[in-house]
Amino acid sequence: MLLKDSYDVIVVGAGPVGLFLATELQRFGVGVAVLERLEAPSQQIKAGSVGSPSAEIFDQRGLLDRFPQPDLSIFPKGMPVGHFSGLWLLRGAPELRTLPVFAQQAVVEAELETYARTLGVPVLRGCTVTGLDGERVTAEHEGAAVELTARFVVGCDGGRSTVRRLAGFAFEGTPATITGRQALVDIAEPNPLAKGWHRTGTGMVVFGPGPQRVLTVEFDGPPADRDAPLSREEIEGSLRRTSGTEVVVDRLVTGTRWTDNTRQATRYRLGNVLLAGDAAHVHPPFGGQGLNLGFQDAVNLGWKLAATIAGWAPEGLLDTYHEERAPVAAAALANTRAQVALMRPDPQTSALREVFTDLLAYDEPNAHLTRLMSGVDRPYPMDSDHPEAGRIVADRPVGDARLWELLRRPGGLLLDATPDGDAAKVAAPWAGRVAVAEGPQNLLIRPDGVVAWGGAGTDGLERALTTWFGPH
């Protein structure tokens, strides 16, 4: 694919987060290109679902139908909605409105790349970034040097981000103490592994939900070489040690190692370079929180970066990306550290798990952990006391359409329920940035679907419009 010499934004990394960010920018007319080191999408086993908040954003972009959902009627009522440290006891919370997207990460990535290319986003594979110098990006593609310029560069290139290293971001946290392995395997019959999550005297072993998927956690320190290919013998040995059985693995389809290395960039922006997804924060995969964190980074950053490039962003808007997203990631890092601690194979941890199990029998602790694991526990700070302020807006009918369908148009949206259209009159000077629709409530919704203001009248509306959409 031929590239131009200059772009508004270069996104480094064509994983799900980088691709989604590029589509968000393209929707706003931003000149964007994606550079990816790998020649082809990775088929390694990774996340098996996308969290509820991101499923809502996918619906707002018209993407949800790309991921057919399984028949959930086979599950009994009262089925847990998630786990904490392998305790499948989470029952739900009022804020959890939408089912996750049950799709493998490789499927999500493939669909997003198709979507990006349909929108006209250039995705250059086999392109390794080698240098960052101001607005200049140097890379190597097919043995030749490539030099591009961009007003902004966003590193979406994973936990070992080249962009983060070249730009000099601090990446602080705690080192690895465990070795985790997950794989798709063929197991010889009779299969001695029991379905589900099992804490044993040597760690954790997981079999399912599919007939090939296995996961192990061993508390024997980090792997000697995390990048070495995972072998059939290695995953079989780990399964035997953690399960206490003589399980036989006939074939390894695909597998990978991971650890509890848990780190976060101290800033998500240094000048014209920003980070999103695993490039900004890494943690063990318990609860499948990583993809949801990354997609929420992308949808938060996309419109703010587009507004900055277009020239109408209020002062400091781009810095609110770090201010809003960093605390959310920090909470996820904290809960994954706690989950690792609660898995340790010793008598003291066993006693703690019993206490924890008793606590989860109560509704409010259970709902709290459900919110925490689902990523709906931390609304962004807003200068509004509306109950939805700082959260992704709930879907509802607006005329003959759904509210989330109206959000497919790039830009902000004001729902006006005032009798004489007073809210629309206040918002009129922002007509190019904020659309107006008659609605059942007065709500100002940012381009990322987050409610910025709500009220019975128009008090505070002009201030909110100026805060998020700049001077009129």
Automatic annotation (TrEMBL):
**Residues annotated as domain FAD-binding:** 7-335
Q: Which GO terms describe its molecular function?
A: FAD binding; oxidoreductase activity, acting on paired donors, with incorporation or reduction of molecular oxygen, NAD(P)H as one donor, and incorporation of one atom of oxygen
Instruction: Name the keywords, alphabetized.
Output: FAD, Flavoprotein
Q: Name one Pfam family in it.
A: FAD_binding_3
What highest taxon heads this organism's lineage? Bacteria
| Cofactor(s) named in the record | FAD
Q: Which InterPro entries match?
A: FAD-bd, FAD/NAD-bd_sf, RIFMO-like
- By what name is this protein known? FAD-dependent oxidoreductase
